[in-house]
Amino acid sequence: MRHSYRRRKRRVNRGMLVLLLLLVAVFLVSCMAGSDPLWIRSVFGVDVVHYDTEPTLQVCEPDGEQAEQLCQMIGDLTSANSLSLRTFRKPSQAVNAYRDALLNNLLRDHYVLYTGNVLSTSSTAYSMGAITTLIPKKDFADEAFRYFGVSSPRHKDGELFDYVSREGGYTAPVQAWTSRVQVLADGLEETEHTFRLTFRLSDGDAISEQYRAVFVKREDGSCFIYTLDRM
Questions:
Q1: Are 126 and 164 spatial neighbours (Cβ–Cβ below 8 Å)?
Q2: DSSP conformation letters of 2-33
Q3: How far apart are CA 126 and CA 117, in angstroms?
Q4: Quick one: pLDDT band at residue 127, thresholds 50, 70, 90?
């Protein structure tokens, strides 16, 4: 009994020591990083900045080049005719919400690359028959990182695209769509680490409610979408 108690006590002490070392490591990293929280995010995979509350450094032109690039990214998330977007508060939610949109963009823009005699022995791997279109999971992961900053997305079925784990990619019984929805920028603000874009969607006949997207800057000058909310 006494030996069992001592073993449990040692395990508790080891756990407390590991927790203490982790806290010290985070503190030291924050000291070394100084005012560069994006560096901490890249190391630990966590955010240490409240991006929504950063003070505005400048107000940008809503019809400028920067706004146009950000609107294009939002436009890539729209469906064929809907004036509604799925909101999210963290990038991992965004991957699940826009899995089909990202895969559709890949299929639309690189149709020849993904379609044809891609798989010669797929008829036994896919219950619906032979696979003639396959988007490798790496390509989807690259899109998830590009749009949402997620480097290791979970691979699973979407609403339209199916994930075929044996073949390591996505396929769909549908053709790629091209959205005719336009993204209309209402305003753009820049902070130290972000751009905050307010916008509406239009199909030429109707205009949606207003949305706000927060884009986090990368060191290479690109951005990824961090949050998306209705105003």
A1: yes
A2: HHHHHHHHHHHHHHHHHHHHHHHHHHHHHHHH
A3: 15
A4: low
